[in-house]
Specification:
Elements lengths: L2 E3 L10 E5 L4 E8 L3 E12 L7 E9 L6 E7 L3 E2 L2 H8 L4 E6 L5 E3 L2 E9 L5 E6 L8 E7 L2 E6 H4 L6 E2 L1 E5 L7
Length: about 180
């Protein structure tokens, strides 16, 4: 059975929303203390009307062992297509919790640190759930087109009040031991 690993300490109805532009990737690093199989990601979304019919994807990347920067794409999920119901929930100040299953699941991961994140393609912003839950400096990341071009940066360096984590939860096949 799956075990969920999260930094967000999620409590239903208590998350804020941060905008994520098309092609941007947001998420966080998780250390694995035992080999494990990643099956899916669970994500709190609040899409704008312009995103109706747009795909949302999840990713897992290897990370640089010194800096923690996401490096190599390991796997991506099947797309989740934004529905009218998802958009309507945003209009009612609610979000939608969706599960993004990985193709060829489970993705076998060794003892290491990995980055899991989400992105979307299309018009409008994807509202992504955030919490101040279990914030650890240097563990939340955003890939975006900044002043010096596209690249990765820690969330706390990008947003004024950036000490938050994304509601992007990793679902594993086995019971992982994490720090």
């Amino acid at each position: 059975s799956d075990s969920t690993i999260a930094r967000d300490d999620f409590v239903a109805g208590s998350a804020s929303i941060a905008p994520l532009g098309s092609g941007e990737i947001a998420g966080q690093n998780y250390p694995l203390w035992k080999p494990d199989g990643l099956t899916s990601l669970s994500v709190l979304i609040a899409p704008e009307e312009e995103m109706l019919g747009a795909p949302i994807f999840g990713f897992v990347y290897s990370v640089d062992t010194v800096t923690g920067v996401p490096q190599t794409l390991i796997a991506s999920t099947f797309p989740y297509i934004v529905s009218q119901e998802d958009v309507d929930r945003l209009a009612n100040n609610q979000g939608t919790f969706v599960t993004l299953p990985f193709a060829n699941s489970p993705i076998d991961l060794p003892v290491d640190e990995v980055f899991v994140g989400v992105s979307h393609q299309g018009n409008g912003d994807l509202g992504l759930g955030v919490r101040s839950g279990i914030f650890t400096p240097g563990k939340t990341w955003l890939f975006f087109n900044g002043q010096s071009g596209p690249g990765w940066d820690n969330t706390e360096n990008v947003f004024f009040a950036g000490e938050f984590v994304y509601t992007v939860q990793a679902n594993f096949n086995y019971c992982a031991d994490l720090a």
